[in-house]
Amino acid sequence: MEHSNLLYAASVAVAYLTASGQPVKVTAAEAGDLVDHVDHGQLDVRQAAAVLRGWTHA
């Protein structure tokens, strides 16, 4: 369940970025990797945000 919550959070972040006019390009594997890294404590909030920013392109 907790893993699903993290995946949902990543999906919401992508939806928010898209709604804010920031085009997002991400694969399911990349989203899964982000979730795994956060879940295992390998990324903090700032690092996760940097990954999300890396998914945007103008």
Write the layout of secondary structure elements.
Blueprint (H helix, E strand, L loop, with lengths): L1 H18 L8 H12 L5 H10 L4
Helix pairs in contact: 1-2
Question: Would you kindly provide a written description of the structure presented here, covering whatever features stand out?
Answer:
With 58 residues, this protein is mostly helical. The chain has one domain. The chain has helices at residues 2-19, 28-39, 45-54. Helix 1 (2-19) crosses helix 2 (28-39). 5% of the residues are buried. The mean pLDDT is 90.
Q: How many structural domains in the coordinates?
A: 1
Order of helix and strand elements from N to C terminus: HHH
> In angstroms, what is the radius of gyration?
11 Å
Main sheet specs? none
What is the CA–CA distance across the termini? 34 Å
* Helix and strand composition category: mainly alpha
Find the count of extended strands (DSSP E, 2+ residues): 0
- Which percent bin holds the helix content? 55-70%
Tally of alpha and pi helices: 3
**Mean pLDDT rating:** 90
What's the overall geometry?
A: globular
Uncertain segments of ≥5 residues (pLDDT<50)?
A: none
